[in-house]
Amino acid sequence: MNRKYSALVDRLATSSEELVWYVGKLAGTDLTAPPAPNEWSIHQALAHLRDTEQHVFLYRAPRILKEDAPHVSPFDQEAWHKEHYSASEPLKKILLDFTTARRKLIALLRKTKDKDWARYAVHPDYGNISLEWLVTHCYNHTLEHIVQVGYVYEKQKLLPTLK
Q1: CA neighbor of 81 nearest in space, from 121, 36, 115, 44
Q2: How would CATH label the architecture of 3-19+42-162?
């Protein structure tokens, strides 16, 4: 695998470690209270991140690698959340499920060849989504939630000490 793809896989691995580190800095209502009206709590966002890791990224990547242009369905995160989210689910389980799925995805990606990154699935809304696009999207999705957790950490832990 060339350096570009190898670096992307490395960043994907590191991003999950960073997320877990940040989450470890929070407790109690930092995890369960929505940071703003109409926003998900950190607990909800992490359940969502785990669900997309398991049911989108870890599901689509192997199909892209094994099948010729498989058709994939959209993932309705709001509907999935309404049907599957449980506020009582332990955060440790959510994080374990997420990191387990991420490790499986990383292991799969480390076995790829350069030509594999151009393989694609067909999505009804996005058209052809290559493995490179999917992994980049997965990485950016993780970063989005790291920023969310980091913002709560800074707001709850750092800003009061500056007053």
Answers
A1: 44
A2: Up-down Bundle (1.20)
